């Protein structure tokens, strides 16, 4: 059941205390996380949840929507408490509608966690089995890609080159350290240069064995695997 809405600023306490096995799609803006995520979303057994997509689907006229817009339009991160609250609400809604089926689907998170504090907050909700770091050293190529995406999709976070460059600065300062939060055994660094299919193959090489291991024992998956720390 979806949780009762937590007030803004309150720590979100999920009523469903399961920790869902998850893989993180990680990397700089424009590196292709969303492309891989949307392909994975079409494969049975994966459930892709993008924090950016969640924010873009929120009613911009409401209180949360106005605050989110303020941060996104500057290329800044949305505050952690609000981010995790809304992310968890979206996850609960998908579970309620059975678009996310915890017994069958490996959760693929895209765009979250975006700093170490979010990584700590998410520990209560997910068990990170893999962090897939899509790497591309050609920042200029990615900036060009984002400018094209802005024209195509009208995204406010890519509206100007200044905002895009600010997003890179936020990535290097706040997001890149997230990969050090996790055990090195779960980190997979993949070359993000290549066709979507070539990169998909690299991503699946990591994810398929994890999916097999997590869902091989149906009763373990049915229990939602590991209880949250302190549960
Ligand atoms: N986990 C998060 N924490 C804070 N802000 C976020 C988070 N995810 C997305 N955002 C906000 O939404 C914007 C767009 O995110 P996203 O769609 O993931 O961008 P990209 O795919 O280019 O990396 C970010 O620049 C940020 O302002």
From TrEMBL:
Cell compartments where the protein resides? Cytoplasm
SUPFAM superfamilies from the UniProt entry: P-loop containing nucleoside triphosphate hydrolases
Listed A to Z, the keywords are: ATP-binding, Cytoplasm, Kinase, Nucleotide biosynthesis, Nucleotide-binding, Transferase
Where it mainly occurs, coarsely classed, is cytoplasm
Which residues make up the binding site for AMP? 51, 56, 76-78, 118, 155, 167
Catalysed reaction(s) here are: AMP + ATP = 2 ADP
Please name the Pfam families in this protein's record: ADK (PF00406)
The EC number(s) given in the record are 2.7.4.3
**Alphabetized InterPro entries for the sequence:** Adenylat/UMP-CMP_kin, Adenylat_kinase_CS, P-loop_NTPase
| Gene3D superfamilies hit by this protein | P-loop containing nucleotide triphosphate hydrolases (3.40.50.300)
Metabolic or biological pathway, per its Swiss-Prot or TrEMBL entry: Purine metabolism; AMP biosynthesis via salvage pathway; AMP from ADP: step 1/1
Is Nucleotide-binding tagged as a keyword?
yes
In the UniProt entry, what is the domain comment?
Consists of three domains, a large central CORE domain and two small peripheral domains, NMPbind and LID, which undergo movements during catalysis. The LID domain closes over the site of phosphoryl transfer upon ATP binding. Assembling and dissambling the active center during each catalytic cycle provides an effective means to prevent ATP hydrolysis.
The record describes its quaternary structure and partners as:
Monomer.
What biological function has been recorded for the protein in this entry? Catalyzes the reversible transfer of the terminal phosphate group between ATP and AMP. Plays an important role in cellular energy homeostasis and in adenine nucleotide metabolism.
* Family statement: Belongs to the adenylate kinase family.
Give the protein name, as stated in the record: Adenylate kinase
